[in-house]
Amino acid sequence: MFSNTAQYHHNELKIAQDPSHPSHLLPPAAPEGARILDIGCGAGQTLITAYPGRLTFGIDVDVDALHLGRQWTTEVAFTCGSAEALPFRTAEFDCVVARVSLVYTDIFRSLREVRRVLKSGGRVWMTLHPISLCWAQARKSGWKGRLYFLYIVGNGLCFHFFQRQFRLFGKQESFQTERAIRRALLQSGFREIVIDRSRGFVSTARVP
To answer: How many angstroms from the chain centroid is the CA of residue 199?
Structure first.
């Protein structure tokens, strides 16, 4: 039997490998020889599926997920750490992906770190949280989940209007808007920003 954590990551791997699944969403292909970093990699589902045979690195705060990933593959270099303080050299990567992970961080600090570790011409691909998704999750939970949703709303509004965020009991989460994420990317030094709402909330940008 899998633990709850292992079961979750196994399910996520199945989704990543199934193009017909409604939640299937992977970053674009990368050229051979590209160095790719996945922030909030979990057990490496995205890297295993999207970038086999590439130079891939995954970072996450969840030690159990990283341990599971090391059982799945030897192609990914897993590291425990946070998006706000990436333990990598400046200009080390050609591509950074962040699939629903930066939404749980201080987005400004994280984007500055992403900008730092990307090479000139490097790209970031990330999926974000519209408020509709946060509400859909809150509706399935009890009163504690709905109270937490109020925190997410307040944090998202602070990010939208003031470009600031705050923690609650050691946690960080917010919803994002196109305006806020575009401004945050520009202020962090990114250009060629593209926001795609056709499937979820995907934003891409390039380092000049």
So the answer is: 16
What is the CATH T-level fold of the domain 4-128+176-206, as seen in this structure?
A: Rossmann fold (3.40.50)
Q: Check whether 13 has a pLDDT greater than 70.
A: yes
Q: Give 3-state DSSP helix, strand, coil % of the chain, rounded to 5.
A: 40, 20, 35
Portions of the chain given CATH number 3.40.50.150: 4-128+176-206
User: Residue 202 and residue 174: Cα distance in Å, rounded?
Assistant: 16
Q: Are 37 and 117 in contact (CB under 8 A)?
A: yes
Cβ-in-10-Å burial (0-12, 13-18, 19+) of 140 comes to exposed
Query: What pTM does this model have?
Result: 0.93
Q: What is the pLDDT of residue 1?
A: 43
3 has pLDDT over 70: no
pLDDT of residue 134: 84
Displacement of CA 184 from its chain's centroid (Å): 15
Over residues 50-55, mean pLDDT = 93
Going from the C-alpha of 41 to that of each of 25, 114, 186, the distances in angstroms are 14, 14, 25
DSSP 171: B
What pLDDT digit, counting tens, does each position of 113-139 carry?
999 999 999 999 999 988 888 888 878
In 3D space, the residue among 38, 30, 130 whose CA is nearest the CA of residue 79 turns out to be: 38
- Both tokens of 52, joined, read 């086999």
Cβ atoms of residues 62 and 119 within 8 Å:
no
